[in-house]
Design goal:
The protein is of the alpha/beta class. Helices cover about 45% and strands about 10% of the residues.
């Protein structure tokens, strides 16, 4: 854990040299010409590859790289994107069907071996040239039994935190960031009294609300050492953990008290930036880079970068920084008819100038897990926030430590929505998590559940 935190912070803070590149314009760069020759030599020109992913997992910048890749190599890239709530079911139906994608994406981490068995569906990428610069911790999360099957193309140097509007909090008399749940509730009361809704929580997408639970649950192992091992050995259940019940009760209370507004069940993630920009809401759990998106949004009511800050959501008085080295990752399907073209695409997006392009063009991406001397885009606000937390105040999020949790993310989100609407109790949510974990474990022939 200590080495992980130091590694992530090192990626934020090391001074890097500025580079110039032309790889993403209308003219071919030296990089693109290299790939043009590679495609011709391999006789890949004219082929088409499909990349299947959940809609939030591929940035506009990457899709522009796909256009550039086609222009350089003659290999067309088709992005087959799905909504979060149907993606995984659709993916595995395709992987088991007659028309699988050439490249597909899923979260890295424990599930790729235990549940998804991606060594069965994926091509071994251990000997690809980009492996020499691929982040060690990311490689561990995309590997099975010492062989790497995926490429994480996701910023794992930061996670989702509460991005808040300092001016709106100051207007409510809040001058210090709350570090306890009671203080947070008081803040929400005061903000509401000014006519501002405290928390934008988009639940209609079916994924964001689970972060309120999972991205604050890192306190569990530190406050109750050995609990994660007990969960993974099936010697204790979530239902037995009073701290987990309290966490859900506090999240439910925020919703039922009106601090998430009246429309959280139909609110969507894509509208978060606009609502924070126009001052209707005071905060939302977002990645730090989204502050730039808020500032540049057409709905901005005059806020600038200095008006926004970052804090932890103090559910159960949590002040442990959430560290999340996993993320959406790319895998080449073993049944693909275009494996070489797919490998060339991964090699292309992992070059230094193309990684730099994604960093420079995407507010949600401050860095990518490769060591190429790229210039990161972390700002002083982010670095100052992260520097508050030492190794002892940092912990892995639930989905990175607890087996058979991340696989049921969508179902947990559905349950949390019902809980926040008052039609399901926090204990019922935990009972359902335990039941699904047991089902997933038995399907995986996990000996702890036999």
């Amino acid at each position: 854990m200590n080495n992980l935190k130091k590694s992530l912070l090192k990626l934020l803070c090391i001074p890097l040299c500025v580079i110039l590149f032309t790889g993403c314009g209308s003219e071919f760069s030296e990089n693109d010409l290299t790939f043009k020759n590679l495609a011709r030599e391999s006789k890949l020109t004219g082929s088409t590859i499909t990349l299947m992913a959940s809609s939030d997992w591929v940035t506009d910048a990457e899709m522009q790289l796909g256009t550039n890749f086609e222009a350089a190599t003659g290999i067309q890239v088709v992005y087959d994107l799905y909504q979060d709530d149907v993606y995984l079911d659709t993916l595995f139906a395709k992987l088991d069907g007659d028309d699988p994608p050439d490249i597909f994406m899923t979260q890295s981490g424990l599930a790729i071996k235990n549940t998804y068995q991606l060594d069965k569906y994926s091509v071994d990428l251990s000997d690809e040239p980009w492996m020499a610069v691929y982040d060690t911790f990311s490689a561990a999360e995309t590997s099975i039994d010492g062989r790497n099957y995926g490429m994480s193309y996701f910023d794992n140097t930061t996670d989702y935190y509460m991005i808040y509007n300092k001016e709106l909090l100051n207007n409510a008399g809040i001058t210090e960031v709350p570090t306890t749940y009671d203080a947070f509730v008081t803040m929400c009361q005061n903000v509401t009294a000014t006519g501002v809704i405290p928390i934008y929580e988009p639940m209609a997408d079916g994924w964001h609300q689970t972060m309120l639970f999972a991205e604050t649950g890192q306190f569990l192992e530190i406050s109750e050492p050995g609990t994660i091992e007990k969960l993974n050995n099936n010697t204790i259940t979530f239902t037995e953990l009073e701290s987990m019940k309290l966490a859900l009760e506090q999240i439910q209370n925020l919703a039922l008290s009106g601090y998430m507004g009246e429309n959280f069940a139909t609110d969507i993630y894509d509208n978060a930036v606009g609502y924070l920009a126009n001052g209707e809401y005071a905060m939302c759990m977002l990645r730090p880079g989204m502050i730039n998106s808020i500032i540049s949004n057409d709905m901005n009511k005059g806020f600038d970068k200095e008006d926004f800050g970052i804090m932890l959501l103090p559910v159960c008085d949590n002040q442990i920084l959430n560290v999340h080295p996993t993320g959406p990752s790319k895998y080449i399907c073993s049944a693909s008819q275009n494996i070489d073209a797919a490998k060339l695409y991964l090699q292309y997006i992992a070059t230094k100038d193309n990684i730099q392009y994604v960093i420079d063009s995407s507010h949600s991406v401050n860095n990518l897990p490769f060591d190429l001397g790229q210039v990161t885009s972390h700002d002083e606000v982010t670095i100052e926030f992260l520097d508050q937390f030492g190794d002892e105040e940092s912990g892995l999020v639930l989905q990175d430590e607890v087996t058979y949790f991340n696989e049921q993310w969508g179902e947990i989100s559905d349950d949390i929505l019902k809980m926040c609407e008052g039609t399901m109790s926090p204990r019922d949510v935990l009972t359902q998590i335990d039941a699904r974990r047991a089902s997933l474990a038995q399907a995986a022939n996990d000996p702890a559940w036999k």
